[in-house]
Design a protein that fits this description.
The chain is α+β, with helices and mostly antiparallel strands and about 110 residues long. The chain has helices spanning about 10-15, 20-35, 90-105, and strands spanning about 5, 45-50, 55-60, 65-70, 75-85. The protein has one domain (about 5-105): RelE-like (YaeB-like fold, 2-Layer Sandwich).
Length: about 110
């Protein structure tokens, strides 16, 4: 049984669709693998951010994209938040948004 990938909102999906082509292509390859083998692909594709939060690590010649996600029952992966990385360290603001959304989707 394959995994299903959904988005926290249409805005999150559209933002990822707007990523530069190379970063978006890498993201698509990772999510296709996740649908087959599940969310725990490990480095360099996915990484735990602590608690129930994980990140997709999308890299292209144009830069680096990150998409935070969590898993919920019935083999469902929810893409919670995304951003194009501009510094070495993940900005605290981006993590806070994703952590807040994990709590929201877990209590639907």
């Amino acid at each position: 049984m394959d995994w299903e990938i959904t988005y926290y909102s249409e805005k999150v999906r559209q933002a990822i669709d707007g990523w530069p082509l190379g970063i978006r292509a890498f993201y698509t390859r990772v999510t296709e693998r996740m649908k087959i083998w599940g969310p725990n692909l490990g480095m360099p594709f996915t990484r735990s951010m602590g608690g129930d939060l994980f990140e997709i690590r999308a890299i292209g010649k144009e830069g680096i994209g990150r998409a935070f996600f969590c898993t919920i029952t019935k083999r469902r992966i929810v893409i919670l938040h995304e951003f194009i990385k501009k510094s070495e360290k993940t900005p605290k603001k981006e993590l806070e948004i994703a952590r807040k959304r994990v709590l929201e989707v877990r209590h639907e």
